[in-house]
Specification:
Helix content: 25-40%
Number of strands: 6
Radius of gyration: 15 Å
Low-confidence stretches: none
Strand content: 15-25%
Distance between the termini: 28 Å
Number of helices: 7
Structural class: alpha/beta
Largest sheet: 6 strands, mixed
Length: 172
């Protein structure tokens, strides 16, 4: 495994269905398993937001005060709602990430499956607030991006990462 310095933000990008989510999740598990570092996986893949399925956690946070519509019922949307209500802080952040069952140092911020929300509602201000809070709490932040480079979340992740992996499918 490559040696990483503390406080790494690692993004996975590339074409759709090339294994970005699989590799990002496996890297998070590898780091969590072999260190005491706190690791956060962020699912910014708006087309196939399903990182939570790889780790056996639900998309919706545990015990929210209210329920969002099914396509928006994910940790990131609850955080955005808290930002809009001016109640977003470290406690709110920790409330809306999903804890994994097998690793106490590996958490998941579940992503948005609504492309409309990603394109029309979310913006860099929200992503900045979320990333700044994550940087206070985690040593490694691993971001799975959408294959759509024009989605703000993908551009934001790439611009704010220390390390970027481009996952490409092999050709014959």
């Amino acid at each position: 495994m490559p040696r990483f310095q503390k406080q790494q933000i690692i993004s996975f990008t590339g074409m759709g269905s090339t294994g970005k989510t699989t590799i990002a999740t496996q890297l998070g598990i590898l780091i969590a398993k072999n260190s005491r570092a706190k690791v956060l996986l962020i699912d910014f893949d708006t087309i196939n937001a399903g990182m939570n399925q790889f780790l056996g956690v639900k998309r919706a946070p545990q015990n929210p005060e209210y329920i969002l519509p099914l396509d928006k019922n994910a940790g990131i949307n609850y955080m955005i709602d808290a930002i809009d209500k001016r109640t977003f802080d470290s406690n709110m952040f920790e409330k809306y990430v999903q804890r994994t069952k097998y690793f106490s140092n590996l958490d998941v911020l579940t992503g948005n499956k609504s492309l409309f929300v990603c394109e029309k509602v979310l913006n860099t201000e929200y992503y900045t607030r979320i990333l700044e809070k994550a940087k206070e709490l985690y040593d490694f932040i691993i971001i799975d991006t959408s294959s759509n480079i024009f989605v703000d979340a993908t551009q934001f992740a790439l611009l704010n990462s220390n390390v970027i992996f481009y996952v490409a499918e092999a050709t014959n």
